[in-house]
Structure formats: C-alpha cells, structure tokens
Specification:
hydrolase, single chain, AB_hydrolase_fold, 282 residues, 8-stranded mixed sheet, 11 helices, Alpha/beta hydrolase, globular, AB_hydrolase_1, Rossmann fold, alpha/beta, AB_hydrolase_sf
Length: 282
C-alpha cells in the first residue's frame, strides 16, 4: 500500500483500475476497507482510490494535536496532487461526506461529480448557534469516557444514545457490517478518537449554493431522521443536486445495501460528461 507524506505523519492509500478517477473517503472511525464493494464494482471502469484518513486504519495517529475537517481536506488535496488527479469524482460517507462538502466549498467546479452518503453536515445533526457550541460541547465528557473505557466502548455508547432517541438501529441494519465497523475501532487510540470527534463537533457546515459540481445525496431508509433532514437541506441548497434513498440500509448504506448504492452511483456517473484524470478545469 503506497503512502503520501502529510504533516506529522504518513497517509496510506490504495488504487485499483484505470479510467476517470473515483476517490472514496470513509466515515469516522472506519477505514478504506469500508469501500471494498465499491472498488469491486467500479474498478473495471474507473481508477478507484481509497485511503485511510489520519487517525484511522493504517494511516494511524499523527503528531497533530487537534484535527479538523479542513485538515482532512488538506490531506485530500495533497493526495490528489501526488496522484496527478485534477478532476475527480468524489464519494464520501458521513465524515467523508463532510470532507467532500468542504472540498467543494473550496473548489466549486474542480470535481467532476460528488456523492455524499449518510449526509451529515454537523455533529450533532441539529442546528446549534455557533456561540453556543463551546458551552454545550460534549468533548470533556468524551475525553474522560474514552480514556477510561476505550474507543470501542465509547462508540457503542454513542450508538446506544442515538438508538434511544430515534428508536432505530441507526448505524447499520446488518450485524456483520456492525461487527466489521466496530473491529475498525481497534486501530483508533483513545486520543485519536477524541481528535476525530472534535473534528466532527467543531465543523461549521459550508453553504454550497455556489458550487457548480453535480452532486448525488444518498441516505439509507433507516437513517436517523435528523440526518435525513440534513441531507434534504443539502440537496435543496446545491444547484445541481439529486437526492435518493437506499432501501434496507442505515447510515453505512454503501455496506448495508451495496447493490442498490452502486446502482445509484453508476446511474449518476453515467450522466457526467467525460473528463480525463489529468484534465485541468477552467
């Protein structure tokens, strides 16, 4: 697995196939293996790139004291530069979708297209005035819990709290997918868990009404209602956005129902004008 040097660490990535570049960005506390079904489906037609965000998977811990979505976007830009990719299709899930949104905000017409799955815009997925966020921050409690009980138990408590509020198995409807996602937490140290959670909580959603990139927003049928509402708002804001629901799927919709997710993405990709991986947009 090749690497790219980043601030205080090394970014691990994989690529497979050839054709227009398709870059997939995983969700929080997961890793690039969460895209295995999409790699298998699209590598015959696309140059599929997956990577582990800092703090996750084989990239692992970095010396940076605090993470942010903007920092993750910086890493994405460095990866694209290293791979000589100027016009990618971006596909992000959850935290990865936040990274995609911030990238599009920086570069309104650079990406060929974008898929945003499990469309979080903020954490928690409700509107909190920026002035109130520091006062309501759960970070001190999260730091204490994760230091005492570890990353996996802390994440399981988050799942339990969301289920208590929504009455749904929000993360996934498939026990095997749930086990796989919890196993990915074995690679996340308590301090890295805290830094990742901080990046989610402190992000301010960008207004994407100015972007020119076509966007597909997808959420699972069993997604938390608050996240669905954020997805609907996002799709209503982006000028060239489409909105879709994946049946029999929760937040990890690309793993819960990969066939339906891949079909939706494939149909969306087919609507895009051909652009080569080295094409520099105007």
């Amino acid at each position: 697995m090749p690497t790219v040097s980043i601030e205080d660490g090394t970014l691990w990535y994989e690529e497979r196939g050839s054709g227009p570049p398709l870059v997939c960005i995983h969700g929080g506390w997961l890793n690039n293996q969460s895209w295995d079904e999409q790699v298998e489906r699209f590598a015959d037609e696309y140059r599929v790139v997956t990577f582990d965000l800092r703090g996750h998977g084989r990239t692992g811990p970095t010396g940076t004291r605090n993470y942010s979505i903007d920092l993750f976007v910086d890493d994405l830009e460095r990866l694209l530069e290293r791979l000589d990719i100027h016009s990618p299709i971006l596909c992000g899930l959850s935290v990865g979708g936040m990274v995609v949104q911030s990238y599009l905000d920086r570069h309104p017409n650079r990406a060929r297209g974008a898929v945003i799955g499990g469309p979080l815009q903020s954490m928690p997925p409700v509107d909190i005035p920026p002035v109130m966020k520091p006062m309501l921050s759960p970070l001190p409690a999260i730091t204490g819990i994760v230091s005492t009980f570890g990353s996996t138990a802390t994440f399981q408590s988050l799942l339990a709290s969301v289920r208590a509020i929504t009455g749904r198995r929000w993360l996934t409807v498939d026990p095997e997918v749930r086990s796989k996602s919890l196993a990915a937490l074995d690679d996340v140290s308590p301090d890295e868990y805290r830094k990742i959670f901080s990046a989610l909580y402190e992000v301010e959603p960008p207004n994407l009404s100015h972007i020119e990139t076509p966007v597909l927003v997808l959420y699972g049928e069993q997604e938390a209602p608050m996240v669905k509402r954020q997805g609907e708002r996002l799709a209503a804001t982006v000028p060239r956005a489409k909105l879709g629901e994946i049946p029999a799927a929760g937040h990890l919709l690309n793993q819960d129902n990969p066939r339906a997710f891949n079909e939706a993405c494939g149909a969306f990709f087919a609507t895009m004008a051909p652009r080569g991986s080295t094409h520099q947009p105007p």
